[in-house]
Specification:
Elements (H helix, E strand, L loop, with lengths): L2 H13 L2 H16 L3 H11 L2
Length: 49
């Protein structure tokens, strides 16, 4: 998890800002679910002889 997201989440939890927590949670799951282009490029680069 990126440091900026950790900081934002900690701040939102301390302020008990449910809207911000929900938004950041959605951002995290979007970030995690997005395919990583560099990872895919490395996987396909090694498979060609």
């Amino acid at each position: 998890m990126p440091q900026w997201l950790c900081n934002q989440l900690m701040s939102a939890f301390q302020k008990k800002d449910r809207r911000q927590i929900r938004l950041l949670n959605d951002c995290w799951f979007y970030y995690r679910g997005k395919p990583d282009k560099t990872k895919d490029a490395k996987d396909t680069a090694g498979s060609t002889p």
